[in-house]
Amino acid sequence: MSLEQKQMIEEMNRAFAVFKETNDQVQAEVKQYGAAAGDLNEKMEKIQAQLDKIELKAQRVNTAPGEGGDVPQTAEVKAMMEYMRKGDFTELKALATDSDPDGGYLIPEQMESNIITRIRDFSPVRQVASKSTISSGNALKIPREGNTDFEAGWVGERESRPVTGTSDFEMVRITLHEMYAQPSATQQLIDDPAFAFEGYINQRIADLMGRKEGYAFINGDGVNQPEGLLVSSQVGVVTDTLDFDALMQLQAELRQEFAIRANFMMNRQTLAYIRTLKDLNNQYLWQPSTQVGKPNTILGDNYILADDMPNATSSGTLVTGATPILYGDFSAYRIVDKQGIRTLRDPYTSKPNVLFYTTKQVGGMVINDQAIKKLKLS
Question: Does CATH number 3.90.75 belong to domain 75-146+165-228+349-366?
Fold first, then answer.
């Protein structure tokens, strides 16, 4: 793996060298003629695509359906598979302590862990957010300091010590919302012992739920879904164009305690635009990694690629009013999961298919109003 990483770093840097040379030519022609030649623009697009491909390869995660590997199946998992394949919940009912014929059966821990892992891999917000799991109720309350701070003062040796001001507190309530997936399979396919049924269901549920929650963590309006980063009133706004000065201002908006853990978040189209930007010393803001274990950076900071972020440009022009970049310490976004994923086998509604109605409860919101900023294009 180390050799593969080194080869990708070398490939990235070679491609970036060609990119810089080509981009300099494009900018020179735009300055002189008002536009660059078509072949240069086409070359730029190909190099950008190559850089994206290398970057995705370096950051890729294994989201292929699992088949359990050499991990032995527990009695609970075997009973769950009998229920899923045949609708026989005799063994499951005997084993389960929290079965519910009307609401479904709790997926055994072994299978649930597979699903949760893939959802985390699918959603980049999950990888950087703080997370909590609750076993009961439909919300999590978190105490947070209010606007009144603790006070201190100077005092002489013989002077009295009056009581100083005490911070106030407020409660942040993160409500959980129900998310569902309902994949289907034919009974014939389910009965086939050669079919990796558990892996199939895991992948389908992970993909469906991953797409839903990943979008909500960024764009959700908080109504029957988590409140997203771009919607939250706890995220400060910097209104500017997208250039060196604006990104520097975005960085400067954060207090030091959050800045030391800060990352940019954007989609790949916005990243492609940022790759063309330079600072006042004619140095590119985006820099590829030069050693294993060190990521590519923008102005020295790491970045996270999230496809659900808005585009910065349309047809090569910056989109006024768009909010294509987030910057901050994303642990200030708290994701709350309800323990357990439930599934209900339905062989009747969609014959000859068997439906697997699966539900999960999750909530999310920003819990610190100083940790994250967004750039709104003017």
Answer: no
